Amino acid sequence: MGLARWITENTTLNRRPFSYERYPFQEAIADDEHPKLSCEKCSQIGLTEIQIRKFFAMLRRTSGINGIFTLPNDTMFKRIYNGRMKPILEADPIFNPPMAIKPIRNMDMTQIFDSFGYQTGCKEGDATSISADIRTCVQHRG
């Protein structure tokens, strides 16, 4: 099963199953597993949203990997983590192990079973100090 389908079958948005209906192009982006995905976009088309879901899906579907998710700056990183990443982790059972196991969940690190995601603002020290199997970098051009 491709990432796009996995995301729709396992994640929600506002308590409803996640869908590509509003932005159909997101499906191809979610399924693209090339190591370098580059998109130029206008604002407010859900690319950050799909990248978050894709990042979490890869951590969940592949055992024992590390990933880095960077955002353009610390302010955006904190806002995106609290407003968009954390709610997905809390709402969707697929990311949560049985109650006996308490995963590490904080602004800097997200444990999904035996994989770990590191979230950060776009600082070189953060990106180079973490060994990662996958990297997701959301950048904005002025």
Summarize the structure.
This protein is of the alpha/beta class and about 140 residues long.
What is the H/E string? HEEHHEHEEHE
What's the overall geometry? globular
Helix percent reads 25-40%
Strand content: 15-25%
The radius of gyration over CA amounts to 14 Å
User: How would you characterize the largest beta sheet?
Assistant: 4 strands, mixed
How many helices? The count is: 5
User: What is the count of β-strands?
Assistant: 6
Count of structural domains: 1
Strand order in the largest sheet: 4-5-3-6
Alpha-beta classification: alpha/beta
Rounded to the nearest angstrom, the distance between the terminal CA atoms is 37 Å
Report on this model:
This protein has one domain. It has 142 residues and is α/β, with parallel strands linked by helices. It starts with a helix and ends in a 5-residue tail after the last strand. The model has no long low-confidence stretch (mean pLDDT 86). Helix 1 crosses helix 3 (47-61). 37% of the residues lie in helices and 18% in strands.
Quickly list its features:
142 residues, alpha/beta, 4-stranded mixed sheet, 5 helices, 6 strands
Fold blueprint:
Elements: H1 3-10, E1 12-13, E2 16-17, H2 26-31, H3 47-61, E3 66-71, H4 74-91, E4 109-112, E5 115-121, H5 124-128, E6 134-137
Parallel strand pairs: 3-5, 3-6
Antiparallel strand pairs: 1-2, 4-5
